[in-house]
């Protein structure tokens, strides 16, 4: 009898324990992120942008309003000259926009002002049976690598790109043809002055070589040097009448810092240490054969050789106008710039005939290296509706809307799929026969950049001074680059470390 009572008590206690466990499990909060709920009340978001009129987004804004009748997006086109000041002042006062643009290399500086995509947010709609992908992985599948490098920090997505620029070669076919005719005349005079069959053969071979070089834009830096020398025209006093390329200066070569940075990256220069706290572009590298090289210094020497009178590639100096003006006025046959300069040149110089070609690469390479530039679309941390803001960014950066944006604005794509498609049409890494916007669509796939501590303008000035010290002051390239590296290290040291910023948020 007593045994049966003990069994019954034990069973009762076990039942109570089971009930308690069930209750606790049922009341326990789910471990994953809370389901994202789109608000039903009226929502108004302000969107600040540069460059594009509201008409560019007319269809997208109309469609988003149809999908979400309770949401109003107020599009405001701002003035470039006062944009940064207006933005920072408005954000500080609590009256800033909900969505806005930031230049890619300043985003790291302003992470504390931004709302990353909410936890649980998706850029790609995934089926029930598909393996779940985290947001950074989704981002990688949608956009080119350069966008990931500047918009994703500590596995958080801080913005989306609508376009991806890269440096390209602008050239004047008429000046190429004119130089070819000038060289042909010189060779004809040489041929008429000799009866030697050996000399005649040499002249014929030289004529074929020159004709080949000037038949189109150079694809590699080796040919580029030869083309520049052939295009350069000087008077009897040695003054430059026609520059082969608007290159070599610090201040009158617009985008000089970007061009030099690209040369360094193409030459496998490590721009900063792994922790991004110290400049490294001035340092030596030991090659596999044991030799010591200075890739960054070599890039500086190459860049400045076009503006140093002692070099055979001398074609540019400070007495010439800035590179855009020189190219527009046909005083320079080539220049390097981003594709957005094309419509500006057409408006300002209606008589100018020019083409756009891929950026030259080191001869013999199999993988391209290009230089990226873009502005990211970001969300303010002060917006009361971060989910709506991010949903709108997802909408306008989707494949359909992004392709429509590129078509209307003629800006290069930031979509990985579109960039891959464009690049797949190339026979080699040199993108031979590519012209126009297709050049920049393909280059978006191989475009890259380097961390500037959120202070690109200060870095640019340091690079310009480094160039000027070499060209104008006669300082050795190594001394100039060492001084520049020290200044850049100061800037990187003052930047708030990204990992520390993340710890503070936690």
Strand content: 5-15%
**CATH level-3 fold name of the largest domain:** D-Maltodextrin-Binding Protein, domain 2
Number of contiguous helices:
19
Rg on CA atoms, Å = 29 Å
Per CATH, the architecture of the largest domain is 3-Layer(aba) Sandwich
Largest sheet: 3 strands, antiparallel
How many strand elements? 17
CATH superfamily label of the largest domain: Periplasmic binding protein-like II
How far apart are the termini?
Answer: 61 Å
Please tell me what the overall shape is.
globular
Quaternary assembly:
single chain
The largest beta-sheet arranges its strands as 3-16-6
Total number of distinct structural domains:
2
Helix/strand class: alpha+beta
CATH class of the largest domain: Alpha Beta
Overall average pLDDT: 91
Helix fraction by DSSP (H/I, runs of at least 4): 40-55%
Unreliable residue stretches: 19-27, 29-33, 500-506
